[in-house]
Sequence to fold (352 residues):
Amino acid sequence: MYHLVFQACLAAAPAQCGQILLPAADSPDRAECLAGAGARVRDWLAARPDLSGGDPDCRANADLPALPLEEIAPGIWVTWGAEAQMEEVADGHIANLGVVLGRDGVAVIDAGVSRAQGQALHVAIRRITDLPVAHLVLTHMHPDHALGAEVMAEAGARIHAHHALPDALAARAEGYLDALARLYDPGEWIGTRVVMPDALVRDRARIGLGDRDLTLRAWPTAHTDNDLTVMVEDARVFFAGDLLFSGLTPVVDGSLLGWLDWLRGDPAAGAALIVPGHGRADADWTRLSDPQRRLLKALAEAARDAVAQGLPLSRAVPVIVDRLNPLKDGWHAFGETMARNATAAYTELEWE
Ligand SMILES: [Zn+2]
Fold:
């Protein structure tokens, strides 16, 4: 397989460049990939006046950067994110991303933090199959999961998301893109754009890949107001998105009480393997979810007590974090994330 690539640079800062891959030009034949490459690149750049482009080339799949994919069940692959916050890594690759291979095509679950990560995921997928990437499912709007989506759209994928995702993503898009530019080298984010889903899920939806089905489920507000999970029905592999964290401290960006409600239910019922948004997969729901449930429950209790004592927010936050400190073992970035969570929890529970 050959991929069309070229160097793109910021029109305003021509020394700041990164590599762009246009998946629509993929071909098993280099000459075929090169035919029309110039026109493809021109068209792509025409819609992006902030970028200038170099000469197109077609490179062999093996010569391009690819994310490592691990097969966790037959035809189901995951690239594991670094167990870190976005600020702590050079490329923002912190979320777990999934690839499900069926008879007729591929479904991708989350697309990564940037165009560069989406491209590296695309190259990795092309190492395991030539089947079309038919679907991309976004588990929620957070940048580490959603900003690589345009690559999958250009590859032909239909994008599925929770019905509340478009509003949430649109409201934060500018801030997310600014954060990428602030945190990383241009090579990591050049060409990254926010794209909106094609299909919105209100309750449940089903995606067929010929010989296997995926059930998508949209949830009430929990981690965010647009959380969506994916069950691969035949293999009983459950992708929880960021409704489950392991190792990295969970971030409350929706509703703490809603999240506790979700955890109290049995959302992964029948799952043989559960893949969290961050951290390693586990076959056992209780083992995977208990530490997070304990932590969020303690957060709610501490926030409730702070409100009951009449502490103002500024004094409540350190008191809440202090009280949760004995639970910090095994949670990365506990202090910073818990300070943010304490603010969110206090604000939510203040009006209970
Ligand atoms: Zn998230």
